[in-house]
Amino acid sequence: MAKAIIIYETRSGNTEMMAKAIETGLKESGVEVGLKKGARANADDLKDVDAIVLGSPTYVRSLIAAMKTLLFEMDKVDLKGKVGAAFGSYGWSGESIAILTETMKNLAGMNVIEPGLRINRRPTEKGLEECREFGKKIAERIK
Ligand SMILES: Cc1cc2nc3c(=O)[nH]c(=O)nc-3n(C[C@H](O)[C@H](O)[C@H](O)COP(=O)(O)O)c2cc1C
């Protein structure tokens, strides 16, 4: 069975709603999924999975702190060729999705799905459906 891990952080819950809907999409496609907050994740979580899905809201044009720390954990493991995907909620500029995408590609040499998924503020039902579809797209890339 294909395996994925979703690692994300959130301050006011919006990116967490996205994470859970992406998890649903992956599970509906038959992928075994782990869901973890960035502050509790480390390099070991990245080892035995086919896909790594990273989520961060944008705060002051950057990643939320715990996700920045997680990128240094990524540097400890060989992730070349693994499937990657980035997502996050944003207010007006949404840089975090490009930062996560760029780092997975350039630092880790991962096979990253582009574009990542950005949702403005709190996801609506339509936004959550987009997240589930994104989960399915990630599942297809693994297979
Ligand atoms: C202090 C502060 C700074 C922010 N800076 C940005 C920013 O630079 N760019 C942006 O797109 N949104 C910015 N936002 C908006 C958040 O990204 C937005 O509220 C998002 O939905 C939060 O997601 P979360 O609920 O997962 O924490 C900022 C919000 C706060 C409170």
TrEMBL record:
InterPro entries, alphabetized: Flavodoxin/NO_synth, Flavodoxin_CS, Flavoprotein-like_sf
Domain of life according to the entry: Archaea
Every Flavodoxin-like domain range: 4-139
GO MF annotations in UniProt: electron transfer activity; FMN binding
Pfam family, one: Flavodoxin_1
Listed name of the protein: Flavodoxin-like domain-containing protein
Annotated organism of origin: Candidatus Argoarchaeum ethanivorans
